[in-house]
Amino acid sequence: MKKLTYSELELIAETKTFHVSNVKIFDYFDLGRKEWYRFCTQQLGVEAVAVHIGVDYKKEVFNNDEIIVRTWLERVGNTSFTLMQKMENKQGILLASAEVILTTINRQTRIKTTVPDEIRRLLHQNAELAELINC
Predict the structure, then answer these.
(1) Is 135 exposed, middle or buried (0-12, 13-18, 19+ CB in 10 A)?
(2) What average pLDDT does the chain have?
(3) Are 87 and 67 in contact (CB under 8 A)?
């Protein structure tokens, strides 16, 4: 599979019980998209809002597990773009995956707007999003 522009988040799973709930997994995926949200608002002047999220849970996540959430740009449409996400443990075992469709909106009018060309160009780059933001 071709690597596309991505972001990566490392974290330690935290819960008061032995098993991390599926709702908390959703939160971890949201944290993994934080760089994308920031990129859209600070660099492009649009807001990206989730309109669809589908998650597949593969393995349990336990308290204090070290996990990596990787997020990459999969598709770009007219007013939306799709991010794919993968959550793995440090051993590279897939714990969960997600498909997230974000629509771009004008921050003042709150109306859908065309996805900026900068995001379209990202689709063809093989780089980490943080590197591109700091350029």
Answers:
(1) exposed
(2) 89
(3) yes
